[in-house]
Specification:
Layout lengths: L6 E10 L2 E11 L4 E5 L6 H8 L7 E6 L8 H7 E4 L11 H12 L4 H10 L13 H13 L5 E5 L7 H16 L3 E6 L2 H7 L2 E6 L2 E7 H5 L3 E13 L9 E3 L4 E10 L3 H7 L4 E7 L3 H9 L8
Parallel strand pairs: 3-7, 3-8, 5-6, 6-7
Antiparallel strand pairs: 1-2, 1-4, 8-9, 10-12, 10-13, 11-12
The structure holds adenosine-5'-diphosphate and magnesium ion.
The site of magnesium ion has 4 residues, from α1.
Amino acid sequence: MNQPAAIVTQQLTKSYGPVRALKGVDLEVRRGEIMGFLGPNGAGKTTTIRCLLDLIRPDGGTVRVLGLDPQAQPEAVRACCGYLPGELHLEAGLTVESALRYLGRLRGGVEWPHVLQLAKRLDLDLKPQIKNLSKGNKQKVGVVQALMHRPELLLLDEPTSGLDPLMRREVLRLIGEARDDGATVFFSSHVMSEVQEIAERVAIIRAGTVVEVAATTDLAGRTLRRVAIRFREAVDASALGRVAGVTLLSSPVGAALQLQIEGEMDELIKAIAAFPVRDLEVERPSLEDAFVAYYGARESEGG
Ligand SMILES: Nc1ncnc2c1ncn2[C@@H]1O[C@H](COP(=O)(O)OP(=O)(O)O)[C@@H](O)[C@H]1O
Ligand SMILES: [Mg+2]
């Protein structure tokens, strides 16, 4: 028998007063995959995720989550899902432990040793009160409560936000393990690199519309990087401008050069090796810059 997809939305629309947050979002997330939901701030990621759990009502379109209509059966949908909201609201006076025990009781079926293990993996102290937690520690509580009941579907709104690089990595690892245990994961991010790291596929949303759905391996070939090179002396590096994928951003003659490269670095690195290099810096452009590069500047003006 064919199982329904984990998530299907068709022509989802939602406005907040005059702000058209979703302009017809079409999504399909397959069972058992990790799908990244990538887009700059304000693109509509949080709004979409909240519609999946019937935490807000879309103005139009249809939603199916694990084959269910969340508007008709919100409790059934929420029972199958682990949800990390963008902002988690918890009783300020509770300790981390009492908050997690409370959420576990609400959920039912939570094994406390599993909660302890998640907390340990994230280096989360159970004793402090919620009101005394840093943003990062609050985020960890959110991650633990989303995973604690081993849900069939994880809906994670920017799961790594506010975390330091080590903890970011651990959260990505936990997401990968949940998938390995059979869960489906849909997680939003505005960081291209982390989506590329763990998601099989990515849906890219921009200004309320899904502009692309792709395998992350296909996106990797399009990774855009800025390269700044300082040479030991003035050189004529025009040859670098002829490398596939390279656009020169400064004059090729001189002691410093800036360029942009799309795709693999191999040919460029070998070409750079012909010059006396003092320093080399490679940076990924912001997601916003990448969007402009891929989808054109005009659309990015919003509206
Ligand atoms: N409660 C709200 N009231 C008014 N506008 C909102 C509200 N929530 C979101 N928006 C607007 O809707 C758009 C999409 O927001 P959101 O879904 O939060 O995007 P993302 O999560 O991708 O950053 C943005 O323009 C945002 O300003
Ligand atoms: Mg958001």
